[in-house]
Amino acid sequence: MTNFTDELAEATHKQLWQEAKQKYETLFRVPKEEASRISEIVRALHVLKYWQSRGRLGSPIAELKAHSVLPDIVDYVAKTYLGEKYIKQEEKAKAEKEPKRKDKWGAFIEWANENEGKKFTTEQLEKKSGFSYQTTLTYVKTSPVFEKIKKGQYRVIPVADRVRKS
């Protein structure tokens, strides 16, 4: 892995501008987007220098994201300067993250839409939603997606028949 210094950032800055000059024949013809990209890469290198100065604690990719470095620049810097170890580490961390509550409810409603007209017990709905019994029960009672048949049994209302409960 690279040792991040001011000299590295400066050398990278010069190299990127030389490449841009060759590509566009003069520095005045370099598009604003390309100039911004070069500046963002240099800024990312300074963020990594800061990360390194703190003892390389945590993920360098997370550090870049915490400093609002653009996603395509994060990818470029990770591939160019960090190596596969940190890229794989970040992918592994993403895969291990627990799904967000919003995503769980979205998946539950999507599942309900695929099972229109079918009857389910509260326990089945709880298991499918991934939330506690009480949370699932509260949602099912107030949701326009389900209607109560009898105690502990609910039916998924077809999309065409749904009316907002108040």
Fraction of residues in H or I helices:
55-70%
User: What's the quaternary structure here?
Assistant: single chain
Roughly how many Å is the radius of gyration? 26 Å
Secondary-structure-derived class:
mainly alpha
N-to-C span: 59 Å
- Reading the helices and strands in chain order gives HHHHHHEHHEE
Summarize the structure.
By secondary structure, the protein is mostly helical. The chain is 63% helix and 7% strand. The protein has a three-stranded antiparallel beta sheet with strand order 1-3-2.
List keywords for this structure.
8 helices; Arc Repressor Mutant, subunit A; three-stranded antiparallel β-sheet; 2 domains; 3 strands; elongated
Report on this model:
- This protein is mainly alpha-helical.
- The protein has eight helices and three strands; from the N terminus they run ααααααβααββ.
- A hairpin with a 2-residue loop joins strand 2 and strand 3.
- The radius of gyration is 26 Å and the shape is elongated.
List the helices and strands and how they pair.
Elements: H1 6-24, H2 32-53, H3 60-66, H4 71-82, H5 84-96, H6 101-114, E1 119-121, H7 122-129, H8 133-142, E2 146-150, E3 153-156
Antiparallel strand pairs: 1-3, 2-3
